[in-house]
Amino acid sequence: MASIIQTVTTNTKMQMDDISKLKNDKMNDLSNLNSEIWKIQTKIPDIELKLEKLNLKLSNVKSNFQILECKIKNLSFIKTDKLNSINKSFETFKKNLNTSFDEKVTKLAQFYDEKVTNIINEKNDKFKKIEDELLKEIETLQSSINDYSDKILNESKETIKSDIKLEISKSIEKHKENMIKMNDNILSFNNDIVKLEKNIEDLNVKYNTETKTKLQDVEKALESLNSDIQNLQDEEIELNYKLSTLNDSKEEECNKLLKLQEETRQLSKETISYNLMIKEEEQYRRFLHNQLQEMKGNIRVFCRIKPEKNIDNTFKHEIQSMMETSDLKESLVISEPENHNPNNRLTASPTKKTNKQFSFSFDKIFDESSTNGEIFEEISQLVQSSLDGFNVCIFTYGQTGSGKTYTMSNLNDGLIPRSMKLMFERIKILKSLNKDYQLYGQFFEIYGEKINDLIDDSINKGIEFPNKLFDSEINNIKMIKLESTNQIDELLEHSTSKRSTAFTMANDASSRSHSIFRVYITTINENNETLLIGTLNLVDLAGSERLSQSQVTGIRLKETLAINKSLSSLGDVILNLKSKSSHIPYRNSKLTYILKDSLGGDSKTLMFVNISCLNSHFNESLSSLRFASKVNNTVLK
Ligand SMILES: Nc1ncnc2c1ncn2[C@@H]1O[C@H](COP(=O)(O)OP(=O)(O)OP(=O)(O)O)[C@@H](O)[C@H]1O
């Protein structure tokens, strides 16, 4: 235990020794430190003084910086002002340039360019100098600060050193930042200046090119204006020359015009009197024409002998025609063939020997050699009568196959096409005498007692005639305006196929109806009313046949009876008209009833009796001649 206690005591003693040793060491350290602190403390007032001095210097530097900033600001203001004034003077310069368009523009621009460049260069130089000076000053300050800080660092404690260093570096950083900002400002200022210079340069270039192009345009416009003016002056000279020649000829023309006016006045006076004369002459011509027609007779009969060219003469009977000097009529002698059976044509003998002779007298006789043209010459005066205001009726009468249709409507030269051609020609002449005539037409047939339209819908729809001036019987028959010969040919061609025909002994396509082509000659009066002047009726009668010879039955017999009845009614009407009977039996047949206005009064009637010289047709020819002769020779009461 004692050893343990001893060991503990020894250990404690040892520890105590160690502690006292450590204590002494620490005490020594402390006294050393205190002496150190004391030393530093003695140095602090110096350092503080130095620091104060440094701060003073720093504040001086700051104030210097501020002054410099102010100076820079002022300089920038000055520069802006100057730039503004330069821009202003540049604007004035531009205005001057605009007004004068002078060549000096380029020189002035160059001059101002140089001036601007110089000013900018000067400013740049100044700024550079200031910048350099500032940088130098900053550098010296930096070095002095560095010196000071070195010294401080060397002399002062680490912490104080670091503090001071920090502070100084902060202030330096701040200054550096300021410097950078200032540099940036200077840079951006320089950039602005460069931009401004660029703008000014661009403006100069733009202005110069614009001015140049404007000048070129103006010069071009001036050039073209000058040439225009020159042209106009030339034209003016030419026009003046023309004007003077025109003035010369104007007087001449005026005189001529006056002369012409006088002549025209004279001519119009003469025209009026000529027109009056023409009117009087026309009336006189009408009167004479009508007198001539009346002298010839209002009802006349012509005879036409159909040619039988390819038939031997032994089959023909003799027909002789001659002029009668006494009453300007022509006579015809027809000789009966030998062995002729008066009741049957089929037994007529083929011999030239004759026995009995029959004599007839007519207004005109057309032998076998006559043409449609020659026939028309005789009847053309009747067409004129219809234009003069009379109603005219022309018939072709005769046995079937005797040439009635050929005479009346043969294409191109029949009475219908020729009459229409003549009418169209006369109307043209009348138009030149201020008489406007229009022709309207109807074309129909009377079959039995029925009226059929021969104008086909396919060729003409017809028109509504302005006034219902006409017979109600034929009001429903198409009325068309007649305008050309072509139209008439077309009408005739179509009507042939529409007409009622049948095979007979004498004609393969014998007409079993009476066809009537009626032309209305009209004019329009001052009240715009249509007036009827005259009518022309061209009637192709159905073939006459003696029942004893035709040997027809049934429907053909009925047709023949109707044809013969209407033909004898026509004969009766004409006979009564010629003998100036008080009663004219128009109503006895449809044919006479429809023609009542064109038969009688002062209307003109002409009948063609068509005959054949064939022995086989002798009886029919004789019968036709007797009928026609009766009409022609009736003595007026
Ligand atoms: N003058 C003439 N010259 C030449 N040919 C004629 C003449 N007259 C009639 N013919 C011819 O005779 C034939 C019968 O004539 P057309 O048809 O004119 O007779 P038509 O009297 O009208 O007969 P129908 O009463 O039966 O109709 C026709 O082929 C026609 O061309």
UniProtKB/TrEMBL annotation:
Q: Which GO terms describe its cellular component?
A: microtubule
Coiled-coil residues are: 44-71, 186-270
Return the InterPro entries for the record. Answer: Kinesin-like_fam, Kinesin_motor_CS, Kinesin_motor_dom, Kinesin_motor_dom_sf, P-loop_NTPase
UniProt KW Nucleotide-binding keyword:
yes
- Annotated membrane-spanning segments are none
Question: Which terms under GO biological process does the entry name?
Answer: microtubule-based movement
Q: Annotated Gene Ontology MF terms?
A: ATP binding; microtubule binding; microtubule motor activity
Q: Which family does it belong to?
A: Belongs to the TRAFAC class myosin-kinesin ATPase superfamily. Kinesin family. KIN-14 subfamily.
Q: What is the protein's given name? A: Kinesin-like protein
